[in-house]
Design brief:
The structure holds two protein chains of two kinds. Chain A is α+β, with helices and mostly antiparallel strands. Chain A contains nine helices and four strands. Chain A is elongated and about 105 Å long. The chains are: A alpha+beta, B mainly alpha.
């Protein structure tokens, strides 16, 4: 399916409140101005405007694919220099599978649908496809914008390459070995974490981090669960909206065939259900944007924060081990100097990491609070708007029907 | 309007009456319908007055079906004067004319006088009854089915329902009374009414359907929500069934119905059991009927009936489609409710784990809002079902009854035709005997001819009678249907409005909480 879709700047469907602030920083502005959906791929047009010296031109435009974003994310997360930073989570893979399947099934000529029903379902599904498309663009954009806003990450070399290199990055997706490797690394990571904290008896001296760790562990699990449940609610709303289609059509045909006395009633009802369908659909998509997406984002972001904590813990363990090694060296009075140097290094690294992590985690909290605030307010306002519209529509219809009696 | 309908004194004008009757028009129509057809009446079916006058020219299109119920006013007199002897065995052995017009409460006195003026003395009796109704005994009967109670244990257990009647009609002994009935009692009642009235053209409301699965669950004692739902669904269906039955003016007069509503003890209706001998016989008969229907090719001389047949066929199809869609809606709304409840719980836990106080509180509030919304969804699903979906289901079954009645008419026609054929054969036989000169057999042949001539006449009368009754019935049915649908649609929309208003309240209460996050 080839369709270029225009992305107006300043799209409302951004999952995180940060996007607006990010977009207004003049020294480095990044946005996805356009996107094209082809067969299996989505091609994003990334536009950069910058007053920073290391860019060759003040305005740049390149075309990137999803794999390029993932590559960029991985270079950050695998870079030890950024160990003390919460790496912005990579955007999820564009997934039009479900939507495409539905459209295909519809097109396969389901004979139980009337022409009218078919047209409406198609409209509904196309809308869904478009919504998914907009969302995926927004998520890719937010990822870049967070990088651009971060004082340290924005200076990364790979980031420049990503924004400026006007050829294809030719980033191949991870092959199976690498994927498997990544998978194992995660397992090792959790095992490691358990080991560090449990077996070695590593004590967390800093209350702040102790609190953060307990908090994040539970929070992440909860957010993930709530996100799942929110998704289900949203999908139920969609089913409901879709149900209104055959009802409206059936009422319409009853209306044209019925006795005079009932015609108005049925035709009005048919119209009503058609409008209710649209309203219900909007409720579903707003809940998706303001609630589901928010929760999804913070599920990923809290995971990134957890990763940070793990790295710090690892650094602490290294520091502890270096201490022990130094003690042993001193006792045996052999190779004390290198042990000392090593211990110093570990200490420094740990302290840097801790300081950076503290800042990052505080930022994370304020980011989270402001995002939730914004989205919950917008959610409530939109729900109110739709409920009022529905109520008005229903009351008007009632007036007509009661008058017709 | 009254003037147009002035019936001549019965004695002289037999001919014109019969002519009009042959047209399928009922001269003797009720005040009910005339009142209703007046533009000033509050009745929703706004029949323009001209329809009535044009109607006397013969059967018309569907638009004017409601005109057909200008009947019943003189129905009583019909009994007395127009006498259709075949009526008596069908109806109850009541000495008084069984068919007394039942007037809806809104339509009363103003027209009465003019009617009685034009109606000559012969119709005195009906006038008395009409006045009686107008003054106090208007169609006033309210039925409630409540308090389902499980009686007994194990597979012999059953649910007993309380049937409460409130009425001011004089035919009942008291103004308010209640009895306990079980489901098979209802089926028994319907069976009796159907036997008496269906084959002469009355649309007897069908009883709620049996459900072996549903009842077994209840018997076995499953105390879960699906059994309570089942019982409630059945209770509501039984209530609607009785309400429809008593609304029918003819059925209301039936002693079996009265006995059902009034007497404390009712003989057990065993023939209604699905697997009983009678049940199996019914199934066999139904199958036979279906085969017969296919083989009867009736020469429809009356376009009205052909139209009606088509109309009800279409309506049936449309309603089935709509019903299926509404059932899907009910199902998904229930799902939405369950998912909302799960989300609410999850959001509450998230709020608990959130360490920022204001956000934590806001999330807890969100959870509460969602819980309330879940309740709303449940109630709405309830309304979706009981108000909208069940109405559609009822009418699908009612239309099946209408189609049944139309089929009976076809069978009646067939019987008449068969009698004519037999008569012809008898005549031919007699002619042969005449030639063969066998005096004793000849007499027998002549007797048989007489017998079959009577049968042919009877057949013709029956056919005309059933056609007349059906026209009346269909008119009444359509009127009821329009009223029913309009009422239900409004009720359903009101439930939707209610839900939205509540949603507004909840979100308005939540908004400041969200804004308070600092």
């Amino acid at each position: 399916m080839e369709e270029p879709l225009e992305m107006p700047p300043g799209e409302e469907s951004k999952p995180c409140s940060l996007s607006e602030e990010l977009a207004t920083d003049p020294s480095l502005q990044v946005e996805i101005s356009d996107a094209v959906s082809e067969r299996d791929k989505v091609k994003f047009t990334v536009q950069t405007k910058s007053s920073l010296p290391h860019f060759t031109r003040p305005a740049l435009s390149v075309v990137r694919q999803h794999e390029d974003f993932v590559w960029l994310h991985d270079t950050f997360s695998e870079n030890d220099e950024y160990a003390g930073i919460i790496i912005p989570p990579a955007p999820p893979r564009p997934d039009f599978e479900a939507s495409r399947e539905k459209l295909q099934r519809l097109g396969e000529g389901n004979s139980t649908l009337t022409r009218e029903e078919f047209a409406k379902m198609k409209q509904e599904l196309e809308g869904e496809y478009l919504a998914i498309f907009k969302k995926t663009v927004a998520m890719h954009e937010v990822f870049l914008q967070r990088l651009a806003a971060h004082p340290v990450l924005r200076r990364d070399h790979n980031f420049y390459v990503f924004l400026e290199y006007d050829q294809d990055l030719s980033v191949r997706g991870k092959n199976r070995k690498e994927l498997l490797g990544g998978f194992f690394r995660n397992i090792v990571k959790s095992a490691d974490e358990a080991l560090i904290t449990g077996v070695s008896g590593l004590k967390e001296v800093d209350e702040f981090f102790e609190h953060e760790r307990t908090f994040l562990l539970e929070y992440h699990a909860r957010v993930r669960d709530t996100c799942l449940k929110a998704d289900r609610v949203m999908r139920s709303h969609k089913s409901l909206a879709e149900d209104y289609i055959p009802i409206s059509v059936a009422l319409g045909s009853l209306g044209t065939q019925e006795v005079r006395q009932l015609q108005t009633s049925f035709l009005k009802l048919a119209e009503l259900f058609e409008r209710l369908r649209k309203l219900e659909g909007r409720v579903a998509s707003d809940e998706d944007l303001k609630l589901s997406d928010l929760l999804k984002y913070y599920m990923r972001d809290s995971q990134a924060a957890k990763d940070l904590l793990y790295r710090r813990l690892r650094a602490l363990a290294d520091y502890e081990n270096a201490n022990k090694a130094l003690d042993r060296a001193r006792m045996r009075n052999k190779e004390v100097k290198p042990a000392e140097a090593h211990q110093q290094l570990c200490c420094q690294r740990f302290e840097q990491l801790s300081a950076s992590a503290k800042q990052e985690l505080t930022d994370f909290k304020s980011r989270r609070i402001s995002a939730f605030r914004k989205n919950l307010i917008e959610l409530a306002e939109l729900e109110l708007k739709h409920a009022k519209a529905s109520s008005l529509l229903l009351r008007n219809t009632l007036i007509v029907l009661k008058g017709d009696a | 309007m009254a003037a147009e309908r002035e019936p001549p004194p019965l004695g002289e004008a037999r001919q014109p009456e019969l002519e009009e009757l042959e047209d399928g028009e009922d001269l003797f129509t009720s005040t009910v319908s005339t009142l209703e057809s007046s533009p000033s009446s509050p009745e929703p079916a706004s029949l323009p007055t001209e329809d009535i006058s044009t109607n006397s020219n013969g059967p018309k299109t569907a638009e004017i079906i409601l005109d057909d119920d200008r009947e019943d006013l003189f129905a009583a007199t019909e009994e007395v004067s127009l006498d259709s002897p075949e009526r008596e065995p069908i109806l109850s052995p009541d000495p008084t004319p069984a068919i007394t017009p039942v007037t809806p409460t809104t339509l009363v006195t103003p027209r009465m006088e003019s009617k009685s003026i034009t109606a000559p003395v012969i119709f005195d009796r009906s006038r008395e009854e009409i006045e009686e109704e107008a003054n106090g005994d208007v169609f006033d009967i309210e039925i409630n089915v409540s308090d389902p109670e499980k009686v007994g244990d194990g597979m012999n257990a059953y649910m007993a329902y309380r049937v409460t009647t409130k009425t001011s009609l004089s035919m009942f002994h008291k103004n308010e009374f209640s009895v306990k009935r079980r489901f098979s009692d209802f089926l028994g009642l319907h069976s009796k009414l159907a036997t008496k009235y269906l084959h002469v053209g009355y649309i007897v409301p069908p009883a709620p359907e049996k459900s072996i699965v549903g009842m077994t669950k209840v018997k076995v004692g499953k105390e879960d929500s699906s059994s309570t739902e089942f019982v409630e669904k059945r209770r509501a269906a039984l209530e609607r069934y009785l309400q429809r039955t008593v609304k029918h003016p003819t059925l209301l007069q039936d002693p079996d119905l009265r006995q059902f509503l009034e007497s404390s003890e009712l003989p057990r209706a065993v023939n209604t059991q699905a697997l009983s001998g009678a049940g199996i016989l019914r199934m066999v008969n139904k199958a036979a009927d279906a085969v017969n229907k296919m083989t009867i090719k009736m020469n429809e001389s009356d376009a009205w009936f052909e139209e009606k047949q088509q109309q009800f066929e279409n309506l049936d199809q449309q309603l089935r489609k709509l019903h299926a869609s509404v059932e899907a809606l009910v199902c998904h709304r229930k799902e939405l409710s369950a998912n909302t409840a799960a989300f609410a719980k999850s959001a509450a836990m998230l709020g608990n784990s959130e360490d920022h106080t204001a956000l934590s509180r806001a999330l807890s509030q969100l959870a509460e809002v969602e819980e309330k919304i879940d309740q709303l969804h449940q109630e709405q699903a309830f309304a979706d079902f009981y108000v909208f979906s069940e109405l559609l289901g009822d009418y699908i079954r009612l239309i099946a009854a209408v189609k049944g009645v139309l089929d009976h008419r076809m069978k009646c026609w067939q019987k008449w035709q068969d009698a004519q054929v037999t008569l012809q054969k008898k005549r031919e036989a007699e002619a042969k005997l005449q030639l063969a000169n066998k005096p004793d057999k000849l007499q027998q042949a002549k007797d048989e001819i007489k017998e079959w001539e009577t049968k042919v006449q009877q057949g013709e009368r029956d056919f005309e009678q059933i056609s007349k009754t059906i026209r009346k019935e269909v008119g009444r049915f359509e009127k009821e249907r329009v009223k029913d649908f309009k009422t239900v649609i409004i009720k359903y929309l009101e439930s939707l409005v209610q839900t939205q208003q509540q949603l507004i309240k909840y979100w308005e209460a939540f908004l400041p909480e969200a804004k308070a996050i600092a």
